Description:
Blueprint: H1 4-9, H2 33-52, H3 55-62, E1 69-70, E2 83-88, H4 95-106, E3 109-113, E4 119-123, E5 127-130, H5 141-156, E6 164-167, H6 179-185, E7 195-196, E8 203-206, E9 211-215, H7 226-236, E10 244-249, H8 253-259, H9 268-280, E11 286-289, E12 295-299, E13 305-309, E14 333-338, H10 341-348, H11 354-357, H12 359-374, E15 381-382, E16 385-386, H13 390-399, H14 401-417, H15 426-452, H16 461-494, H17 498-505, E17 511-518, E18 524-531, E19 538-540, E20 549-551, E21 560-561, E22 566-568, E23 585-586
Parallel strand pairs: 1-8, 2-5, 5-6, 6-7, 9-10, 10-11, 11-13, 22-23
Antiparallel strand pairs: 2-17, 3-4, 8-9, 12-13, 12-14, 15-16, 17-18, 18-21, 18-22, 19-20
Helix pairs in contact: 4-5, 12-15, 12-16, 14-15, 15-16, 16-17
Amino acid sequence: MASGTDILTTPAAARPAPTRRPEGRKMVCWFDPLVLAKAGVRSIISTTIGEQADRRLLDALATPKVEPSDFSVDEAGRPREELWFDFVADLGDGWDSTYAIAQTVSRPTLSLKDETGTTYDTQGGEVLVFGGDEVYPEASVSEYQERTIRPWESAMRGQRPAPHLFAIPGNHDWYDGLVSFMRLFCQGRTPASWRTHQRRSYFAVKLPHGWWLLGTDMQLESDIDEPQVQYFQELAKHMRDDDRVILVLAEPAWLLARVRAPGERTYLDNNLDFLEEQVLGKKVSVFLTGDIHHYRRHSNPEGRQKIIAGGGGAFMHPTHAPRQEGPLPGDFTARKMFPTAEESKRLSWGTLGFLGHNPTFGIFTGLLYLLLTWMQVADLREGTTVTWKLSRVLSAAIVNPGVLIVSTLLVLGLIGLADARFGKGRWLAGLLHGLAHLAASLLVFWVAFALTGSFLRLGSVPQELLGAVLVFAGGFLLGPTLFGLYLLISLNGFGAHANEAFSALAIPDWKNFLRLKIDRDGSLWIYPIGIRRVPRAWKPGETVREPEWVADDKNATPPELIEPPIVIGAARPVSTRVAGLSSPEYAGPAPS
């Protein structure tokens, strides 16, 4: 495929006609057994590599100089009066969702309505920030190319000059030891969709009017390494006392304590306190992060903002879990979620259609049910006949060593799978889940062989083969349905398995990103932009001044403001500066 630059310079007549449908990847099917196995192996390997040979140490040695990228001045060295930039996190999944966000970000201008009907005009950012997890399900050159670079190159075609890109890695970027991430974002490579500057997996950007944009790399264990500490300590020497900081993180420390089980270790909160108090010597005005794939904003009375905007293309996470349990530490309270908790709960019922979203998982449960029951056939023979009474089937299952071993492994595996948020009831949740599958497999076995025995000779080869087919079919249909029911009850009843339930649904909609502007008076405007339903159909762009693909889906919804702009650091309420506009949330001067 030609790059965006090649497309712009090649005459239209010489270009091959594009296909009628983008050849992009579909959303990751997280419960495909092969995807699960590969992701598990990658996670183990990357964690081991990260613990034993931290890539960040080598990169710090290769680039010892601490020199922030300076966007406080223009190319002629004159101070900038204003600057637009965009924040996108958790991208590089399915084509439709990733491309929809990339195309929206790429537009030179974007007029947006908020919930009151007020319209705001915005400009495409000169700086683009990727906030972690730039590809799914795992990092590799080919996955980055297909799931991230191709959609963004196609979207950027003919739109505006390529933005300056800064990126931090998330856990999925670390799955190959950060090799592909460093190659793509930290070695000066310039694909048609952006221009890169950073040489480490973290960065510093000086912005106009005393604002700083800092990106951190917490690796897989939520750990900040010593060279990174030294980097930001040296950087802090260049900051004035009244300078303000926008901190980009790969994980939302303030919410993880509620998403994860009580008592589960997390280093991120301590790292944030350490960065603020010991390294930067100032409070952070705005925290930006992804990792959780929806929009959620918290703020405190001081006007500090903590914003999760993980809607760059990955499957949607629920907003009705975790449940709201009062303010977060620092008196941060929830201000806005997208989608609403009610909409999120409605969507969660889709887990009952688990098989429709994850058909290959049905093959796994079909084979599992067949394995659990097929070993009993010999035990059911009484002389030359076979009995299919339910009591006989149950007794045969209890005494069969093979069935007992497989059943024990299944129950132990599901206990291990149970979410730690169940707390002390975790073993009970896994046990009940396992017993449900065992009971279902025996019931399917009994019904299948009793049914075929009604018209075929009991114990005959045709009857046993047809019975085996029916057992597999029953396991294919019933196994995923039970699993989906378990996820639904866990999520809506106990606030557990939020990630598993919604990754199974692979919802491409409810995407979001942030557009930010440093205004002439030094205030920071934050525009949270959402797309309720991304297009599923596309048609080729008609001219070279259009993206390669444009939406062709009447059911898709246009981008809109999730809430009115949040303004930080303005000298006076912004509503008095813009006639005819409803007042956005005024956060007041940012704390020093």
